[in-house]
Amino acid sequence: MATVALTRSGFTAAVSGTGIVLVDFWAGWCGPCKRFAPVFERASEQYPDVVFAKVDTEAEQSLAGALGISSIPTLAVFRDGVLVFAQAGALPSAALEEVITGVRALDMNKVRAELAGEKAPVA
């Protein structure tokens, strides 16, 4: 599966649905981004049931800023509309596969319960 280019207008719809969405925040001038790009592309071919998306932080500065992206490349992973992983830096293939495997194994009911607990006011 090819990667999908995301812009501010389509970002929320892309990450809020069901399933797993990996988002690579990158820029054309970024050396580590260039090294990570083929790793990301190969993974997109290995995992056709996962959405692989890219956000060009130069073209989408307001989106990157709204999400607090301060270092690139940054990989953000959403599952069923929940941000479950975010890390700056170019991952090697094995590490990216570990992230995907780990995200697949998540119990999303437990994740949502934990998130709800974090948001509950402390008495």
From TrEMBL:
Database matches in Pfam families: Thioredoxin
Protein name per the record: Thioredoxin
InterPro entries according to UniProt: Thioredoxin, Thioredoxin-like_sf, Thioredoxin_CS, Thioredoxin_domain
Alphabetic keyword roster: Disulfide bond
Originating species: Paractinoplanes durhamensis
Keyword presence, Iron: no
Domain Thioredoxin: 1-105
PROSITE patterns associated with the record: THIOREDOXIN_1, THIOREDOXIN_2
The keyword Disulfide bond appears for this protein: yes
